[in-house]
Design brief:
mRNA processing; spliceosome; six-stranded parallel beta sheet; single chain; mRNA splicing; 705 residues; DNA-binding
Length: 705
DNA sequence: GAGCACTGC
């Protein structure tokens, strides 16, 4: 027996060292390896450094290791690297831990929502940018970090933008704490007092001696876009360095004339590539599920008309709402002799990297979300991509070898495109951002130093909404305790408010389930070809009162199912039958699991806050009254012709076809979402009594009448 | 009669 162990052990040892050798080789061959010394020198010299690193430069994995080796983690300090996406934070941390030859969670670790792998030993910490923003609420000086690296800054997500504003002032505060000791200067005014106020709020965790000296904070902004000007200007002319990438050349082709029907043009291009070009898979960028499903159908209709030997084409869709088992199919290699055609939304632009792509077809459009603060309405409309987006898409053809990209528009049209996509902060509801900034001590939101300032109207609208929700006082201060409680919850402010109200209405249990489910993508999945079956499955959960109670019914049914099964079988088996249950009921198990995670996290928060976790039992009237009290800003009344009028903005809207109230059409409803696609739709509704609104939100409805 | 993509101590 011992000899067997011995054999296995040495074998594993050999494999291990072979792998280490390979990793060391790979690290050395990265373009960035040759500039290690210079980079470290630049970080020492500059408090803010912009690093423009092309795809494949290795900046994300290597720079933190360079800085660690150069002593930036002395005295237990931490290098923080933020990513816009969870998967990136997790996978990069795993890779770097392996490169360092350490166990993940020790020197190298990641922290993302619901999953913190860090320990006291962690020195290189990968995390999502949203998580670092949350950390700042507890530790406004981010005192444990010596360096913070904001990666993928060119994506300009709301979190990245807010984080850069915050880091700018934290850096200033920390460097002046060394020289003279000022407070954290956020916004226009010096809000020295804020920290003390905050400390009073949150108890001992945040207590920090006022006169504590901080080491200066180094900031590194990493971007893949070639234009670093905006970042450099924002950080007072900060130095920008450029690191070469390792990307294979991609030939770009344009059409001679503008296409009238880009779906048809995509179809023709797919077949042209398939018949005329060498081996390699095709990636087509479409705008949504509907387009993807229709192109999929068209390809499969045309395929039998081709000669037998040309029929080996495998069509694979991928979009976010697709159940993950089906998403996984795009990663599997095609059967021998087959070519894969992947029909994807934007998900394939940055979020997932599909191996084997040699050809990209880019019709040049994207479905983009924008927000109209005046109407309180989101729109989801198809718009042309930006130049940088087109570049990103074509780059997907050059990951493993030289590739080709077919842009389905003339070259002169490319020149007319916007350089980059409008930053998200200029096209989203700002209520959450503003609540967070307020909690961080920013008094003057209009004067806050955003890298790109949202419109004044958008800021004022959100301040107004926060005031109506009771989060802000007449003086525009965070209210106590409601405003502080709301800022602590990682939810939309309107949902946080609903939870606080629900504890007074004795239906917090129901509201907790509701807001968890409202916070995730729809849990209902209905593929076009099984629409009827999906509707039948949903019927057994649906409530005639509306979507909120329907959602609660699904959640409770899945809970009952899980509880019963978990007693009978192992965790893995249970997982399997749970997925089967979801599939049979046309429920997206990924969304439901996500809602379950949120439910658990928020439950812990509200318990810590001492809210009353009670249930209204079967008294759904009480729950609906609470919905009315919570979502009074989103009420609509039926008009004679069967459409609805949203009371806050006066807009004429329709009930979304996914709602259980689609046919019912009660006189008065509250809703959670107002979206314009082909029509203006309200989603997630519940029937309420109009009189409840005037009774429960007189401050608002008295003004209206 | 219909759902781009991310994310949160």
């Amino acid at each position: 027996m011992p000899s067997v162990h011995q054999g296995n052990f040495s074998n594993r040892q050999t494999q291990f060292s072979v792998r280490r050798q390979k990793i060391i080789q790979q690290r050395k061959s990265l373009p960035i390896a040759s500039v290690e010394k210079r980079l470290v020198e630049e970080v020492r010299k500059n408090d803010v450094l912009i690093i423009v690193g092309e795809t494949g430069s290795g900046k994300t994995t290597q720079i933190p290791q360079f800085l660690f080796d150069a002593g930036f983690c002395r005295d237990g300090r931490v290098i923080g690297i933020t990513q816009p996406r969870r998967v990136a934070a997790v996978t990069v941390a795993k890779r770097v831990a392996e490169e360092c030859g350490v166990e993940l969670g020790q020197k190298v670790a990641y922290s993302v929502r619901f999953d913190d792998a860090t320990s006291g030993l962690t020195r290189i910490k990968y995390m999502t940018d949203g998580l670092l923003l949350r950390e700042a609420l507890l530790d406004p000086y981010l005192s444990k970090y010596s360096v913070i690296i904001v990666d993928e800054a060119h994506e300009r997500t709301v979190h990245t933008d807010v984080l850069m504003g915050l880091l700018k002032s934290v850096q200033l505060a920390r460097s002046s704490s060394v020289s003279g000791g000022q407070g954290l200067n956020l916004g226009n005014k010096n809000v020295n007092v804020t920290l003390e106020k905050e400390n009073d709020q949150s108890g001992s965790v945040r207590k920090k001696p006022r006169h504590e000296k901080f080491a200066p904070l180094k900031l590194i902004i990493m971007s893949a876009s070639l234009d670093a000007r905006a970042f450099s200007e924002y950080f007072a002319g900060a130095k920008a360095v450029h690191i070469q990438g390792r990307q294979f050349p991609v030939d770009i082709f344009y059409t001679l004339h503008a296409e009238t029907d880009y779906l048809d043009a995509s179809l023709i291009t797919i077949f042209q590539i398939h018949l005329d070009e060498g081996p390699g898979d095709i990636l087509v960028f479409l705008t949504g599920q509907e387009e993807i499903e229709s192109v999929e159908r068209l390809i499969n209709e045309k395929l039998p008309q081709l000669p037998q030997e040309n029929q080996k084409l495998l069509v694979l869709p991928i979009f976010a709402a697709l159940p993950s088992e089906q998403q996984m199919r795009v990663f599997a290699p095609a059967p021998s002799g087959f070519r894969k055609v992947i029909l994807a939304t934007n998900i394939a632009e940055t979020s997932v990297t599909i191996p084997g792509i040699k050809y990209v077809i880019d019709p040049g459009f994207v479905k983009a979300r924008s927000y109209d603060p005046g109407k309180g309405m989101e729109s989801l409309i198809i718009v042309p991509t930006s130049k940088s987006q087109a570049l990103q898409r074509s780059g997907r053809a050059g990951r493993e070898g030289p590739g080709k990209c077919f842009r389905l528009y003339p070259e002169k049209e490319f020149e007319k495109l916007e350089d980059s996509t409008m930053p998200e902060i200029k096209r989203c509801n700002l209520s959450n951002v503003i609540l967070q900034l307020k909690a961080l001590g920013v008094e003057d939101i209009l004067g806050f130093d955003f890298i790109e300032k949202p419109s004044r109207a958008a800021i004022i609208k959100s301040l107004e909404q926060l005031f109506l929700l009771g989060a802000l006082t007449d003086e525009c201060q965070l209210s106590d305790p409601v405003g502080h409680q709301m800022a602590r919850l990682p939810l939309d402010p309107i949902y946080s408010r609903a939870l606080i109200l629900a504890s007074q209405f004795n239906c917090l249990e129901e509201m907790l389930i509701t807001v968890a489910l409202l916070s995730v993508e729809s849990i209902f999945y209905s593929p076009r070809d099984k629409l009827e079956e999906a509707r039948t499955a949903m019927k057994c959960f649906s409530s005639s009162e509306g979507d909120h109670i329907t959602l609660i019914n699904v959640y409770r049914a899945s809970n009952d199912f899980l509880e019963k099964r978990s007693m009978e079988m192992s965790t893995t088996k249970c997982e399997k039958v749970y997925k089967k249950w979801c599939k049979e009921n046309f429920i997206n198990s990924r969304s439901l699991r996500h809602a379950r995670d949120i439910h658990k996290q928020i439950q812990e928060h509200v318990q810590q806050m001492g809210l009353n976790l009670s249930s209204c039992g079967d008294d759904m009237l009480q729950f609906r009254r609470c919905l009315a009290a919570s979502f009074f800003l989103n009420a609509a009344v039926k008009q004679p012709e069967g459409t609805y009028r949203a009371l806050a903005s006066g807009q004429v809207v329709q009930v979304h076809p996914s709602s259980v109230l689609f046919r019912k059409k009660p006189d008065c409803v509250i809703f959670n979402e107002l979206v314009q696609t082909n029509h203006k739709y309200v989603r997630n509704l519940t029937r309420v009594d109009y009189l409840w609104l005037t009774e429960l939100a007189p401050q608002y409805y008295a003004m209206q009448s």
